[in-house]
Design goal:
The complex is a heterotrimer.
Chain A: H1 8-21, H2 23-30, E1 34-35, H3 43-62, E2 71-73, E3 85-87, H4 88-99, H5 103-130, H6 139-161, H7 166-180, H8 186-194, H9 206-236, E4 250-255, H10 256-281, H11 287-290, H12 309-317, E5 324-327, E6 330-333, H13 334-362, H14 378-397, H15 400-406, H16 411-450, E7 452-459, E8 465-470, H17 474-481, H18 505-519
Antiparallel strand pairs in A: 1-4, 2-3, 5-6, 7-8
Chain B: H1 16-25, H2 29-48, H3 67-77, H4 79-82, E1 89-90, E2 96-98, H5 105-114, H6 147-175, H7 193-203, H8 205-208, E3 215-216, E4 222-223, H9 233-242, H10 257-272, H11 286-309
Antiparallel strand pairs in B: 1-2, 3-4
Chain C: H1 29-33, H2 54-85, H3 95-126, E1 133-136, H4 144-161, H5 167-187, H6 203-213, E2 219-223, E3 241-246, H7 255-262, E4 264-268, E5 288-292, E6 304-306, E7 311-313, E8 320-322, E9 328-331, E10 340-341, E11 343-346, E12 349-352
Classes of the chains: A mainly alpha, B mainly alpha, C alpha+beta.
Chain lengths: 551, 319, 368
């Protein structure tokens, strides 16, 4: 440090704050906080910045939007709807679109930001899952993230229902039908949600209710969760990809100030810029084309936004025969309940439970700050791909009418295909992915064992040709050696014949069988020569000291 | 632990696999892969998108019907399926091959033939719209610069219009049925567009989609798109009147000529109006929006992330 | 390799992955010295200080400045368009001006933001001299002593408060808290009315009752959209379909709610193909038959009628019903047929003689 002094304009406010809050302690600790670089670490930032754009544009929209179901006659500047009866909500959304300068742009950016918010969360979650970044100590952030995605789904559903156009009304109609199917309390849920009967209830309460949920309650909760998510991430430090200088003991990268700050600032500008680009050049949710909601009307290709597509697909592929039961005078609609609850229950419930299931099966309760390469956890990667396939099949099934129309296939044939595919393809995806991972492991073992082909052909004295092998580059080797080989299962009983605590009872047996199933085909990767015998304890960071396993 | 090597990457004689591996590690390789994937998807999309717009067909020639010519055209083009007396035909099991044309009316003939659906070439789930056969093709190009070519084309067009009139009048006199609407009835500037919108959403959008992009029906059938190259106002009117193929009939006593004109007005205005928000993404709703969000939105953001986090260029450093 | 004793510093990551240096050899010492660990006494220098080639840096600076100027120009264009042009001739109204405004405002905004983003990115990549640094990671868990001390303090506090020793205090507190927690739930009761029998009848029933009170047989069917009553002779084309409502529904208290239940499709099925359901032989008029338009699956209007197959398809989830056979389900997720409306003729007009015989729309618990 030189004798350089901060200019007065900076020092003044800093000292003012510090005298009162002691804030300089915090700034000093964090000014050079290290952030490891990898493109996939930015996916979560897209969600954060989309959320900020959502708050900005959403606030703009509230200045003109009327959350009211009162019937009015349209008299705005969109000629095709002049004189049409509609709700005031739809009327004011048209006003924003056609009579407020920049209103259409803000509406479109808002909707695109919602799409990007949800897609980037999903992409971010996939990155976290496949690299094992949810492992201890980051399980809490994993759970927070999943809950934000679920809240995002609700927020989106309520949001696109607000304009009260034909498409959103259709979505609410389906919501009503699903609510009604809930056993015992279904009709009460329906009546209490809509304030009476669909669509307007007794006092036109639905849109005002959705509005307050959409602009206050849910965004407030999401904002709280985002804050917690960020603070936990900041406190725990970001995970790193296996490479030189990265380990459980240290993190390597550029300092927060000025580099990461500038990078993330630029990324916010990119996010907003891309959303503005989409808002300017790609039309989204053209409510004036849909027309006002009319309970007797419907359009073909009525789909929800993409993040609700899974539910739509599940509802479509469920066969209706034999799935509605009348028991003791009460109707139980399994043809609605199963698709509404089971697929997303499996995906989200499974995702929330997974870190703990994995810990239980592998017995690995150590701290992990270095990400796994997906190939090095074939079971996890396989299950992840199976889940992606499951979700993807349901998602496509939600668009089966568009697929049938655009690709000229029979509509019912697509339904039948999806009915089978939803069971078969995830299993195939699991098997193929696992094989693929093991193949890559084998290749890695080969690189470490025999080196890489140098591209140099040498002629032996006897005239034969062979290609020279040489050791892989260091970066490559560090990456490959980041694999933790499967550890042999502890013996079922110790020397005194006492069963190991983790293998007692039926759950213990199950656990040990699962562990064996998950690790029996592991390809050990280890270096030969003087390094041999080092076992699974390859430290990733060459700059670190002896590796300590956190307990 | 690492054997030192004497050669440098750059001086090695590469073999192709090696070169690919090296290529994969280039800093721009990641961007290239993402871009190539996006381009491939764009190409795929372009391949499935409708290609060109064709000019809208003009109206109806008021030529004096020549029933003899009509009969001759019928025998040549239609009788093989519909029977010599237009009574329809059945296969050996009694399953209809082609329906009777008695009572279908001039409107039906005009719709089926002028949209090229009839004569059908190979019956499938549904007869697609196609270019009418030359004898009935009233949409041929006539704006040639050479006078003789233009004259020939105009003559051919006039003949096609006459043929169409003759044929439909021949069928009409066999059993009556709805006639072709007048130009005034289908004038898309004269209907009540607000009423048309309501009727379109209640009666048409369920199959043809809210902007007339079409949609899927059962067993490979589909509601065709209603773009300017697919259907003229006259053909819309005829379709509502006669209910071609799977489409239900909306006769003039259920939806009056005024109601039909309102629907035509709404549809023509809808397909002519611009997309104020930019590209309409096919005007099919959230499916294409979700696709665009993932491909363009997430795609561009991933490219930006790769650029921001890429290793710094070396050449800027003082060496 | 794990035991090698590299010092904390490392070489700058490079685009070419370190080509030009022999694989596996340590990085040049001079680079290492620039990179002290932040805990070894020289935190200020950590991450700072690569020197730039001044000529290249000047170039980069010009490039960045150009992007910043472009962003400036685009933002000015945004404001200039808004103030100077978008409001001409009485302001932005209608679809063409909205389109123009969207393109200009959106285009300039996107350009400004992206130019700024690109500028900052080039700045970071070409002009910022910070170097990567290393920081320690820490165990999250507190030490065993801290945990023990906290536990002791916690128990001591509980003891001091008396809550552990005074069960009466504890129990009455819990007793007081429980109903207070329930109070907000009670408040939610007025969110909506109870379902009662609302889902069991539609406006058809009310209208028929009213018509019967006036000495008529039933209520007329009117076309949704035009409100024109339909004569049998009007709806005489086989293959015809239209959406109908009970006459007078527009004048009801909550038309939207009533229409959402009463909306019905009227179909003209060729009489020879029509198979009436047992007990409903006189519910159709020569093959003219009426079914609820509300799908029995989750309530979308099931309105795609194919006159060739006589199938009614719901566009939402593709439940398919057979119009010739009491609208029984032939495909898809719906379980029950669409409810049928009993039709008749009075003075030549199509009328409904009763409400739907069962609740319309999706299934619910009390439906039975």
């Amino acid at each position: 440090m030189s004798d350089a002094q901060a200019p007065k304009a900076v020092a003044g406010p800093l000292n003012f704050l510090d005298d009162r809050l002691g804030s300089t302690n915090f700034f000093q600790r964090n000014v050079k906080k290290v952030f490891p670089d990898h493109w996939s670490f930015m996916l979560g930032e897209i969600a954060l910045y989309s959320f900020i754009v959502l708050l900005l544009t959403g606030t703009f929209l509230t200045l003109w939007f009327h959350p009211s179901m009162e019937e009015v006659v349209y008299n705005g500047s969109y000629t095709k709807l002049k004189g049409v009866q509609m709700s005031d909500a739809y009327n004011s959304a048209l006003h924003i679109t056609f009579d407020v300068r920049g209103g259409l742009l803000m509406r479109q950016i808002h909707h695109w930001a919602a799409i990007l918010f949800m897609s980037s969360i999903l992409a971010h979650m996939l990155r976290i899952f496949f690299t094992g970044a949810y492992r201890k100590p980051r399980e809490l952030n994993w759970l927070i993230g999943i809950n934000m995605f679920i809240l995002g789904m609700l927020e989106g559903l309520f949001g696109y229902s607000l304009p009260d156009d034909l498409l959103s009304g259709t979505g609410l109609r389906i919501t009503q039908g699903v609510a009604e199917s809930i056993p015992l309390v279904g009709t009460y849920v329906y009546m209490f949600l809509f304030g009476g009967e669909f669509p307007a209830g007794d006092h036109g309460d639905l849109i005002p209710r959705l509005y307050s949920l959409h602009i206050l309650l849910i965004p407030g909760v999401i904002l709280g969760l985002v804050t917690a998510h960020m603070m936990i991430m900041w406190h725990q430090k970001h995970t790193a990809m296996p490479s030189k200088n990265q380990s459980n003991e240290q993190v390597y990268g550029y300092p927060f100030y000025p580099v990461f700050m500038a990078k993330t600032g630029a990324y916010f500008l990119f996010t907003f810029g891309v959303l503005a680009l989409l808002g300017a050049f790609a039309q989204i949710n053209p409510i004036w084309q849909f027309g006002p909601y009319d309970p007797g009307a419907i359009s073909s290709g009525s789909q929800p936004d993409w993040y609700m597509g899974v539910l739509e697909g599940a509802l479509r592929m469920m066969p209706g025969q034999g799935t509605e039961w009348v028991i003791a005078g009460h109707t139980i609609s399994m043809n609605v309940l199963i698709p509404a609850l089971v697929p997303l229950g499996i995906v989200f419930g499974g995702a929330m439970a997974w870190p703990f299931i994995e810990q239980w099966v592998t017995g690995d309760r150590r701290r992990h700050d270095i990400n796994d390469r997906p190939r090095n956890a074939p079971v996890r990667t396989g299950i992840g791909m199976a889940a992606v396939t499951f979700y993807g099949v349901l998602w496509l099934a939600g668009a089966n009418d568009v697929l049938a129309d655009k690709f000229h296939v029979s509509l019912f044939a697509t339904t039948w295909f999806f009915r089978f595919a939803v069971f078969i393809l995830p299993v195939l995806a699991y098997i193929i992915t696992k094989r693929f991972c093991l193949g890559l492991q084998r290749k890695d073992a080969d690189v470490i064992g025999h080196g890489v082909e140098a591209g140099i052909i040498v002629m032996a004295p006897d005239g034969g040709f062979s290609e020279k092998h040489e050791p892989a580059k260091e970066e490559e080797r560090i990456k490959i050696l980041s694999k933790e080989n499967a550890r042999p299962e502890a013996p079922a009983t110790d020397a005194n014949g006492i069963p190991a605590p983790s293998q007692k009872g039926p759950m213990g047996h199950l656990r040990s069988r699962l562990q064996r199933a998950a690790t029996f085909d592991d390809i050990p990767i280890e270096e030969h020569g003087e390094e041999h015998g080092h076992g699974d304890d390859h430290a990733v960071g060459s700059g670190s000291g002896p590796k300590q396993l956190g307990h | 632990m690492i054997r030192p090597t004497s050669t440098d990457d750059k001086t090695r004689t590469g073999i192709s696999v090696k070169r690919i591996t090296a290529w994969r590690r280039r800093p721009w390789a990641g961007y290239a892969v993402v871009l190539a994937a996006l381009a491939a998807i764009a190409g795929l999309y372009a391949g499935f998108s409708p290609k060109t717009d064709r000019a809208e067909a003009a109206g109806t020639a008021d030529a004096q019907a020549d029933l003899a010519n009509g009969r001759q055209l019928f025998n040549k083009n239609c009788a093989s399926c519909h029977g010599l007396n237009a009574e329809g035909t059945k296969d050996a099991k009694g399953k209809p091959i082609a329906p009777s044309l008695l009572g279908v009316g001039a409107a039906s003939v005009d719709f089926q033939v002028s949209t090229g659906r009839m004569p059908a070439m190979n019956p499938g789930a549904q007869m697609p719209r196609k270019k009418p056969i030359p004898a009935f093709d009233t949409e041929i190009k006539t704006n040639y610069s050479e006078p003789e070519k233009r004259e020939a084309a105009e003559k051919q067009k006039a003949q096609a219009e006459k043929n169409l009139t003759d044929l439909r009048e021949y069928i009409a006199q066999l059993g009556g049925g709805p006639s072709v609407p007048t130009a005034d009835q289908v004038d898309p500037t004269k209907g009540d567009v607000a009423l048309g919108g309501k009727l379109f959403r209640t009666n048409c959008a369920q199959c043809h989609n809210f902007t007339g992009q079409g949609g899927a029906l059962t067993q490979g059938k589909y509601a065709p798109p209603l773009s300017p190259k697919d259907v003229t106002p006259t053909q819309m009117y005829e379709a509502m009147m006669t209910g071609p193929q799977a489409m239900p009939v909306f006769n003039d006593t259920t939806l009056t000529p005024k109601d039909k004109q309102a629907i035509i007005t709404y549809l023509v205005q809808t397909r002519e109006e611009p997309n104020p928000g930019g590209n309409g993404l096919g005007r099919i709703g959230p499916v294409s929006e979700g696709l665009a969000g993932w491909l363009v939105g997430v795609g561009l953001m991933v490219l930006a992330a790769m650029w921001i986090t890429a290793k710094k260029p070396k050449k800027l450093k003082k060496s | 390799m794990s035991d090698n004793n590299h010092t904390a510093g490392s070489d700058e990551p490079r685009e070419d992955g370190g080509a030009g240096r022999v694989v596996g050899t340590p990085s040049p010492a001079e680079e290492r010295t620039l990179l002290a660990r932040d805990e070894d006494g020289s935190p200020a220098r950590a991450g700072a200080g690569a020197e730039l080639d001044e000529k290249a840096a000047k170039n980069a600076e010009r490039v960045v400045a150009t992007f910043f100027l472009l962003a400036f120009a685009a933002s000015v264009a945004f404001i200039a368009y808004y103030i100077g042009w978008s409001g001409r001739n009485g302001g932005m109204h209608g679809i063409h001006r909205a389109r123009e405004s969207n393109l200009w405002l959106g285009g300039t905004l996107a350009f400004a933001l992206l130019a700024l983003a690109v500028g900052v990115t080039i700045w970071v990549r070409r002009l910022m001299t910070s170097k990567p640094i290393i920081q320690e990671r820490h165990e999250m868990a507190s030490s065993a002593e801290t945990r023990a001390a906290f536990e002791a303090d916690f128990l001591e506090g509980a003891e001091d408060s008396g809550i552990t020793k005074r069960p009466l205090l504890r129990r009455t507190l819990l007793l007081a808290a429980a109903p207070l927690g329930l109070a907000p739930l009670v408040l939610l009761r007025d969110l909506g009315p109870l379902p009662e029998k609302r889902l069991r009848h539609t406006f058809w029933g009310d209208a028929v009752k009213k018509a019967k009170a006036e000495g008529k047989k039933g209520v007329r069917l009117v076309v949704d959209g035009t409100n024109a009553p339909l004569k049998v002779s009007d709806f005489n084309s086989p293959g015809g379909m239209i959406t109908v409502l009970p006459e007078g529904i527009e004048e009801s208290a909550r038309p939207a709610n009533e229409i959402a239940k009463a909306v019905t499709i009227l179909i003209n099925v060729p009489a020879e193909q029509f198979k009436p359901v047992k007990g409903r032989e006189n519910w159709h008029v020569n093959g003219v038959v009426a079914y609820s338009k509300i799908c029995t699956h989750v309530g979308c209007p099931a309105a795609l009628y194919e006159q060739t197959t006589h199938h009614i398809l719901c566009p939402c989830h593709q439940s398919t019903f057979d119009a010739t056979d009491g609208a029984k389900v032939v495909f898809g997720p719906a379980h029950r047929p669409l409810p049928q409306l009993p039709l008749s003729v009075e003075d030549g007009y199509l009328i409904a003689t009763d409400d739907f015989p069962e609740p319309i729309g999706p299934s619910f618990w009390e439906r039975g």
